[in-house]
Design brief:
By secondary structure, the chain is mainly α. It is built from 15 helices and two strands. It is flat and about 75 Å long. Its main location: membrane.
Length: about 325
């Protein structure tokens, strides 16, 4: 009868050693490596697409911004002259200032209207009127910006619906070509942008309100809080994240605006509605100043980052 010692595998026999299963730690490392390779394989197509269509144009624009080039002839080195022109020429600086003014209409006004409308819709959530209000207010968001610009160009013209309503109300002295007046052209464009952006802000804020615990409102009512106190003490802090997203998206839309302004005013009258996106388009394709247009695009990108990053930092600070 063999002893237990005789049944143990002999160290010199390779077959018994090869049949030994791998250690658990080694199997875990292999699984992790395989998971990483699969993750890289899944991300690679999107990363290549992003690198080719986003990073590559940014690098090319940064390169062109240091040259004086019309897109055809040989480029000559210009150094930082194009950036100096962007930050010193009144026309280009005015375009940047117009974009910052549009933040009021594209961001602050839509967020304020969306907060008021969302709070009102939440209070009548059980009625059919709430669903109709959500639909009506969100419709502008699904309309193409070009179509929105054309529609509002008709409404704001000398014989448009806006002036017809004002004449019917006996306010003939107020009527004007809203998009053709130096004083009202930029605010009129801002109204179009506010009309478009309100729907997105409304949906985001309504989604945030659904996360607020209803018991908080019940406790506030028991303590004698009114609608205004409920709004500032419960609703507003509860949708802080959604407001931050709305502000970030709409600010970027204001600084990078192009479609609505190109269709509605093309930057006129004069340069009263000229914005960076439109000025870059004119510099590159009409004036053939590729270097200046590229420098302006890099400055615009830096402005967007400089405005958006503090908003994100503010959001993280509120969270902590």
């Amino acid at each position: 009868m063999p002893t237990p010692a005789s049944t143990a595998p002999t160290p010199g026999l390779g077959g018994a050693a090869r049949s030994r299963p791998p250690a658990p730690g080694r199997r875990a490392r292999r699984r992790r490596a395989g998971g990483h390779l699969l993750a890289y394989a899944l991300v690679a197509p999107a990363a290549l697409f992003y690198a080719f269509f986003v990073l590559r144009p940014i690098v090319a624009s940064a390169q062109y911004s240091f040259y004086d080039w019309n897109g055809v002839t040989t480029a000559t080195w210009a150094g930082f002259d194009n950036y100096v022109a962007v930050l010193s020429e009144p026309k280009l600086v005015g375009a940047i200032l117009n974009a910052f003014e549009l933040i009021l209409y594209f961001s602050i006004v839509p967020v304020g209207i969306a907060l008021f409308a969302a709070n009102l819709i939440r209070s009548i959530a059980a009625s059919r009127l709430a669903a109709a209000a959500r639909t009506v207010l969100f419709i502008p968001q699904v309309i193409p910006l070009v179509a929105a610009g054309i529609i509002w160009s008709w409404q704001l013209s000398s014989d448009g619906l806006v002036n017809q309503v004002l004449r019917a109300a006996g306010l003939d002295a107020v009527t004007r070509a809203w998009l053709g007046d130096f004083d009202t052209a930029l605010p009129a464009v801002g109204v179009i942008g506010a009309w478009v952006q309100t729907g997105l802000c409304l949906v985001l804020i309504l989604a945030g309100m659904t996360r607020i615990d209803a018991s908080l409102y019940e406790a506030a009512r028991i303590d004698g809080a009114g609608p205004v106190r409920e709004f500032f003490s419960i609703t507003l802090p509860g949708v802080r994240q959604e407001i931050a997203v709305c502000v970030t998206v709409t600010v970027i839309s204001a600084l990078a605006s192009f479609d609505i302004i190109y269709v509605a005013t093309q930057g006129g009258p004069g340069d009263s509605t000229l914005v960076p996106g439109l000025q870059i388009f004119y510099l590159a394709f009409f004036e053939r100043e590729i270097g200046t247009a590229s420098a302006f695009s890099i400055v615009l990108m830096a402005l967007v980052i400089a405005v958006v990053l503090p908003l994100q930092r503010l959001l993280r600070g509120s969270e902590s």
